[in-house]
Every structure is written in C-alpha cells, then in structure tokens.
Design brief:
Elements (H helix, E strand, L loop, with lengths): L2 H22 L54 E5 L3 E6 L4 E11 L7 E5 L7 E8 L21 E3 L4 E10 L2 E10 L4 E10 L5 E12 L14 E5 L7 E3 L2 H6 L2 E7 L2 E6 L2 E6 L5 E8 L4 E7 L3 E3 L4 E12 L2 H7 L13 H18 L2 H15 L1 H16 L1 H11 L3 H15 L7 H20 L23 H15 L8 H18 L4 H26 L6
Parallel strand pairs: 1-6
Antiparallel strand pairs: 1-2, 2-3, 3-4, 5-10, 7-8, 8-9, 9-19, 10-17, 10-18, 11-12, 11-14, 13-16, 14-15, 15-19, 16-17
Length: about 550
C-alpha cells in the first residue's frame, strides 16, 4: 500500500467521522421499559406512600400520568411584559406561563440589531415554559395548574435595581397561592417560587411541576450544518447521564415517571437552551412526551409537599432561558454544561475551547484567536507533520523513477510491487511514514470543528473586513475560495505517480467539491481550515524544497 492510499484513507476517515457525528444527533437512544397507565390532563402526585421513611421523597412514586394536553388554540389572559437587562419576557395570566422570550444581549439571526427571539406562543414557533401545582387524584383541596387563571396587579415590570419580582396570585376554597418569578441583574436564571397558604381546616398536599413545551420548528436550522434540537434529560447517577430524547423517539418511546435524585430537564438547540433545574437533593420524577398539535413536552414533578391548616410553605425551582455558556451552566447544576454537546470527542474539545477562550481574553477577537489556536496546534504536531511531508517529498523527488517502473512493469503487478519495494529500500523511502501522524492529528482537528460549531461565543462575533459574523457563512465566499486554492496547491506538492488515471481525475476534483460544501459553512470553521491549509502548504513546501535540493539525506 502506498502513501497516496493512506491519503485516501485519511480523507475517508475524516468524512466518515464527521458523518457519524452528524448521525449521532438523530440516533435513537435506548429508553427504560415503560409502564402503562391511564392518561390524565394534569401530572398528578401519587396517592399512597410506599416508603415514607425516605426524607423528601415523593409520597409514593409519580407514575405514568400523561403530560397536560395542550389544545390547538392556546388560551390567553392578561399579557404581562417583563424587561430585565438580559431578558424580555411575556407572562400570560392564563396559566401563569412564560409565553414569549427574547434575549436582549444576543442579536436575531437575520437582524443583529433586534434581540434573538427564543420562545413564542404565536406563529410557526410554539415554545413555552409552564409550571403549576399537582394534587393527588382524590384531593379535597384544589391547586392551580398551568390551565388556571392567575391575577396580576400590573401589566409591565422593568428592572431598575439588582433584582426584580413579578407576583401572580390565585385563591380557591381557602388555598391562597402566590407565584413569584424572581430575576437577578446580569443573569438568565429565573427563580420560580410558589408560596402556598392554607387557610382551610384541612391539610393540603401538592407537588410543583414544571415543563417546557415546543414544536419542531426551528427558524435557525441549517441544512448544511445539522445540530440537535429537542429535549434532553440528565441523571447524574445513571451510567448514561446525559440523554437526548429526540422528537421522533418520543413518538414511539415516551419517558414517564423516571425518578432521579436531582437531575434536570431541558430543550436545546444550537447556541441556546431552556432548562428546568429542581432541588438537586430531592427525588424528582421526569417525563418527556408528545402532545397534541405536533408539540412535545419535557418536564419534572417535584416531591409532594404538605401544608397544615393555618401554615404557609414555599415550593421552588429554577428556570434558565439563555445562551449555552459553559462556565455559567456548570455553576447552575451538575452536568448542565453537557448541553454544549461535542459528542465522543468532548475530552479533546473542552480543553481546546478553554485554550481558545484563554487566547481570546488576550487578543479580544475570536477570529484572531482561531488563527493563533490553529498555529499552536500545528506547532504541537510539527514533528509528526514533518514525518509525513518528508515521506511525500521523497516520493515526489523519485516520481520519475516511479513513473518509469509503472510504464515498464505496470502489466505485471507482482513484479511491479517487487521492483517498487526494492526502490523504496534503495532510496530509504518509507511509504507508510505519513500514515500515523495524519491519523493522530485528525481527532484534534475534528474536535476543534465541533468547538467552533457549538460555541455561542462565535455567534455574530466579528473578525475583520467583510467577516462580521464568524458563525455565519462568508457573504462573498472569499474564504471558501481561498481554502479551495490552498487545497489545490497542496495537491500539487504531493506525488501522483502512484495513482491510476481515474484516481487522479477524482483527486483533482476534491478542491472544487470541498469549496462547494464550504460555501455554506460558518466563516469561523472555514477560517480554521484555511489557516491550517496555509500552514501545511508552507511546511510541506519548505521540506520538499530541501529534499529536492539534496539538503536532506535522512
């Protein structure tokens, strides 16, 4: 097998790996064996205690009750506008849900001057955060679900200090509930607090439930750069802690009543997510299911809480609506940073991002940081690359002899191979010398590919001149064309005598094929490949020149 065969192998390896990573997002995950149960409209806490000795556990388990059914037409009450320094939300008194969310510090995809519109209950995208209190099926006292009407004293709240509270109230049959949305300056994390006052003569019991509901629509989906959009669940005690439950999976394998210590539930998409983070010390029950009208829900039911007559208790949870920032998410809950999914190469991608972020802290430009990181990676692998390029340079130097052998003995393959191996031995050529260096470097390059694809820091980050968004394609296709040119130059530095005529024709098309696909790639990714190609060409040209001039005899 000659060196050119290994280049083909390397190319196939790279494309196959990227394809497998792409397919991973749509791959079906194994689910736990589901238990059957009658469906109900609101998630209900279980009725009878099975292990009352477990502190803080649900009284009994939360079974396979149905996620609340969302009708085709979403009810609407009074709309309450909430504005902080990071978020602009709309809360509807019908259910007390968050029905609309804009991220004020992140620009819209089509118009960076407008805030990014993440959630909505109108138009093509249906995406809401709902919560409520669930009671036992035979409960005598009521509780407000996400279908009940709440009261509000104001229709607009604007943050003027370090914190902001938005209260909603509900009362019925001696049960008074105040729902508080608490916001903190500079944060995308929201505290959701239920204050339950029992003014009746009987004990009240209920569980706080929270869920995220959305349809499949994703206006920012890129058909050339697939990224996962959908529900995820996290169980820190499971062997497979972080699991995606795609919309297609949920149609046939919904998740019902999965009890977890701590954990969290989220809806993710490229760059952004919403996440429900309950009490991390409690036994929480998670679900993910399809709803009516092409919508899906992922959520959690927290432990049953009892409130004695004349008493008041608080039930609380956290809701994150914002960007996928590793450092921020890691501080909110264990494993929440895994929503920035680098796949099987996470162990390489995370340190690469750390270095990239560290460089950016000095240079203040993500494009320049990408260039410097690419240079550092090339320096680390310089000696390995040198081995590969030296082997190719020697093959190139003796290409006339190789061509002569092919002409003289090409019809007799056994004799040709014998003569070829003799030439390799006489000239001290190792045709396999570049194989290992290439294969070793590929995981690093692919890991960096995923880092650049999933880092929200790159979104709408300017580089220079016409590149004003490293996460978007080059508007004038200059970088992809330059990348194709550097790939063509690199081909010219490689020997082609060992390739048959058909292989040569196909290989010559590769720069054009890659250029075509890279036209739609984010500019940050193309910049990385371009810089890597330029450095590779420079290194290969230098080594080839020295060998052809007879300056190297190794």
């Amino acid at each position: 097998m000659n060196m050119r065969s290994f280049w083909w192998l390397a190319l196939a390896f790279t494309l196959t790996w990227i394809w497998l990573e792409w397919m991973q997002f749509g791959a079906q995950k194994e689910q736990q064996v589901l238990q059957s149960s009658a469906q109900q409209e609101v998630p209900a806490a279980a009725q009878a205690p099975t292990d009352a000795s477990v502190p803080g556990a649900n009284l009994g388990r939360v079974g396979n009750e149905s996620v609340p059914v969302i009708a085709e037409s979403i009810g609407s009450g009074q709309r309450i506008k909430v504005v902080t320094d990071t978020l602009e939300l709309v809360i509807d008194t019908q259910g007390g849900d968050i029905r609309d969310a804009k991220l004020l510090t992140y620009g819209a995809t089509e118009d960076p001057l407008q805030p990014f519109h993440l959630m909505s209950d109108q138009g093509a995208l249906i995406y809401m955060a709902q919560n409520g209190l669930a009671t036992q099926q035979n409960a005598k006292l009521p509780a407000p679900t996400h279908k009940d009407l709440w009261s509000a004293s104001r229709s607009e709240y604007v943050m003027t200090g370090d914190t902001l509270e938005v209260p909603l109230t509900w009362q019925k049959e001696g049960i008074e509930v105040t729902k508080l949305y608490r916001f903190t300056k500079g944060q995308h994390l929201i505290q959701v607090v239920y204050q339950v006052r029992n003014l009746s003569n009987e004990a009240w019991a209920g569980s706080l439930y929270s869920q995220l509901v959305r349809n499949r629509h994703n206006p920012d989906e890129n058909w050339m750069m697939y990224t996962y959009t959908g529900p995820v669940l996290y169980d820190g005690n499971a062997e497979e802690k972080y699991v995606k439950h795609s919309f297609d999976d949920l149609n046939t394998q919904p998740v019902n009543g999965r009890t977890v210590t701590g954990g969290w539930a989220a809806m993710i998409q490229q760059y952004f997510l919403t996440a429900i983070v309950p009490d991390q010390s409690a036994q929480n029950s998670y679900y993910a299911k399809p709803l009516e009208g092409g919508r899906y829900a992922v959520g959690v039911v927290e432990p049953l809480t009892e409130v004695a007559p004349g008493q008041m208790k608080e039930l609380s949870s956290q809701l994150y609506i914002g960007p996928e920032l590793q450092n921020v998410l890691a501080e909110i809950a264990p494993g929440l940073e895994l929503t920035i999914d680098y796949g099987v190469l996470t162990f390489l991608a995370e340190p690469l991002f750390w270095i990239l972020d560290w460089i950016h802290g000095f240079v203040g430009n993500w494009g320049v940081a990408i260039i410097i990181l690419t240079l550092l990676i090339k320096l680390v692998f310089y000696k390995l690359s040198e081995t590969s390029y030296r082997s190719m340079a020697r093959l190139r130097k003796f290409q006339p002899k190789l061509q002569q052998l092919k002409e003289n003995y090409g019809d007799d393959k056994a004799l040709f191979q014998q003569k070829l191996m003799k030439l390799y031995k006489e000239e001290k050529i190792n045709p396999l010398g570049g194989c290992l260096p290439i294969l070793i470097q590929m995981p690093v390059f692919i890991a960096l590919y995923w880092v650049l694809l999933y880092s929200v820091e790159m979104r709408q980050a300017p580089f220079m001149l016409w590149i004003q968004d490293l996460s978007a394609m080059d508007p004038y296709f200059i970088l992809p064309v330059l990348m194709g040119i550097t790939m063509f130059i690199q081909q010219k530095l490689n020997p082609s005598a060992m390739m048959d005529e058909m292989q040569q024709k196909v290989f010559k098309l590769l720069p054009f094929i890659f250029t075509f696909f890279f036209l739609w790639f984010p500019a940050g990714l193309v910049l990385y490949w371009l810089v890597n190609n330029i450095l590779s060409v420079a290194q290969q040209w230098y080594i080839t020149r020295k060998i052809e001039a007879g300056e190297e005899t190794k």
